[in-house]
Amino acid sequence: MIPTMGTRPDELVAAVRSVSAQRPSSNVGKVIVVLDDPSFSTAELSALLEGLSVDVAVIRSTDGLSARQSGVLAARSDWIAFLDDDDLWEPQKLEEQMRLAENTAGKVTVVACRVSHEMAGAIDASHSIPRRLMDPRNSVAGYLFRRRPPTRRRPSLFTSTLLVPRALCLEVPWRKIPRHQDWDWLVRADARPDVVVVQSPRVLVRIRVGSPGSISRSPDWRSSLEWAEETLAAFADRRIVADFLASQSLRYAASARSATGVRSVLGALFAGRRMPSLPALLVGLAGLLPTALIKRILRRG
């Protein structure tokens, strides 16, 4: 399932082609492209994707629902794989993940994998991300946010890597929130005792970093702070929340050069009575650096 605003047509076509290239092709059912921009025509998008060697259905997102949940409701298969419109799957992605899912009988399994990053048009395949895979006995929130290091290979669970049971998405819906939609779903799903998250050690997805219009590039500290206080705190201990506030919300406030944002995040940290770890704090302070400098540092590891 691919959500799109329709503003990256070339990338969208490439994403759908990477789905059609899956081996074996029997692993691919219908590709559902969910248009999340009312100003763009579904007919125009369908014409753009016509002729590709895979069954594609273009739908419009339902009012009040996230694009991903709209796609979940339109799907009919038992498993749903998510892909952002600027990312690409490797040909063996679904085959490898279905094999892992079959080896976790008795559990509701969410399957992810390692990725490669494409920055400024150059794929760095020499570094698989993340360096450390998640221990299924630990929580998603702890894996992602506790002592979050300031490195490119930090713990990660990208939406474009996820293969999940459709039934789980019906019971734990993807919410329409302004930020952290993927982490929000993972943290809430992981709270169920019968859910296990596993990662393939292989690089099965190519993530394009810094695409124009990406939500992750927006320094929206308010939405991040609200999510931490209203949702993350309900599923994670205060040390994890403190590290999230330092590494994410504080970084957005610093990037926006918002004194109000910095004070608000520091106030939340003080109210939580937990000091963030040094690695998480370093990630937050990186928001003061120019984006071009951060990219140069990340390329050098």
TrEMBL record:
The chain crosses the membrane at residues 278-298. Its EC number is 2.4.-.-. InterPro entries: Glyco_trans_2-like, Glycosyltransf_2, Nucleotide-diphossugar_trans. One of its GO terms (molecular function) is glycosyltransferase activity. SUPFAM superfamilies: Nucleotide-diphospho-sugar transferases. Keywords: Glycosyltransferase, Membrane, Transferase, Transmembrane, Transmembrane helix. This is Glycosyltransferase. Residues 2-123 form the Glycosyltransferase 2-like domain. It is an enzyme of class 2 (transferase). It comes from Microbacterium fluvii.
